[in-house]
Amino acid sequence: MKISSIIDIVNGELLNQVAISSINSIKTDASKVKTADLFIAKDFHSIEIAIENGAYAIIFEDDFKAIDSEVAFIKVDSLELAILKIFRFKLANKKVDAFLCNTISYELLKSLFGNMFNKKVFILPNSLEKIFKFIDIIDNDSIVISKNERVLNTIFSQFKIFEKDIDKLSIKNLTIHSLFELSFSYKSRYFSRVKIAALYIKSLINCLEFFKDIDLDLSKLSNFKNLKALFLDKNLKVIEFGKSDTFLISQDDISLVEYEIKFIKEYYKYAKTIYITNKKLDFLDEKDQIIIKSIDELKSVLNKNIFNCAYIVGFKNSDVFDYFSKSKNIPSLF
């Protein structure tokens, strides 16, 4: 790809004159740069690494100086926009169907597929830098799904909405075994003990409808983080799913918190739920909130309260899991 073309695509400014005229591929990880690559840089140190690895051109946003006369230094107003413009250019002549999905559909798809399925379906990562790993493998008749409307608007001339209206009457034989597990029938197919909250059943059915010709492995829903329980024993140690009546639910996406709390209050009202948050929630009575500043306060708070469910707001599910999974070092007497 010609460097002059890249400059036009990203509306960049070439800071120095170089003899080289083209590059082979585009990288966002300096350690993976090879000879004749273009590197998209966020910091000066990564530029040095990329040049050592053989980069022919550098695109950057900050006020860096051209430190190598043989490497093209291209300055842009917005690195993010430059990435999207390059992506749009690379896909311009390919027949690709793009879909905008909501947050829940996105998390479900990520849990079921990761970022790619069958080399034809691509779920774009949140990180713009990471989308470049798809830039040379997205081909004609591919499907691209993203929850970022701005990204889709910049890359594609048009896109469709992933979600469809699901008639609740089409869901048959619904049995809610617990907050986290259900069985149901949909379009003559029975799904037994699927580990997902009933709150998100329509989102799951949207995924089943979209991939209706594929037998999805729903055991992978164990990767779905929303309304996912972490069960604890009486000593607050992590135990196997369902082996205790004490569990935690973590949610760091504030847009889903009110939605999930209403669900818990409706379907788990027979048990004791406490709400722990890192900042005050306007939609919940102040007396019902336990506010903490650090994740390290969790065990102390839980030990002081009687509960079956602790709904924790503002902390990642993975961080909460790590916090309760790590062993506590006890000083030895010897």
Please give a structural write-up.
With 334 residues, the protein is an alpha/beta fold. The chain has 4 domains: 3-77, Udp-n-acetylmuramoylalanyl-d-glutamate--2,6- Diaminopimelate Ligase, Chain: A, domain 1 (3-Layer(aba) Sandwich); 87-161, no CATH class; 168-223, no CATH class; 229-325, Rossmann fold. The protein has helices at residues 3-10, 44-52, 79-91, 103-113, 149-155, 201-210, 254-267, 298-303, 317-325, and strands at residues 13-14, 26-27, 38-40, 57-60, 72-75, 96-100, 116-117, 121-123, 142-146, 160-161, 171-178, 181-186, 189-194, 229-231, 247-251, 273-277, 289-291, 309-313. The strands form 4 sheets. A 5-stranded mixed beta sheet has the order 1-5-4-3-2, with no helix packed on it. Strands 7-8-9-6-10 form a 5-stranded mixed beta sheet. Helix 4 (103-113) packs across helix 6 (201-210). The longest helix has 14 residues, at 254-267. The chain is globular. The chain starts with a helix and ends in a 9-residue tail after the last helix. The relative contact order is 0.08. InterPro entries: MurE/MurF_N. This is Peptidoglycan synthetase. It comes from Aliarcobacter skirrowii.
Which tags fit this structure?
single chain, 334 residues, alpha/beta, Udp-n-acetylmuramoylalanyl-d-glutamate--2,6- Diaminopimelate Ligase, Chain: A, domain 1, five-stranded mixed β-sheet
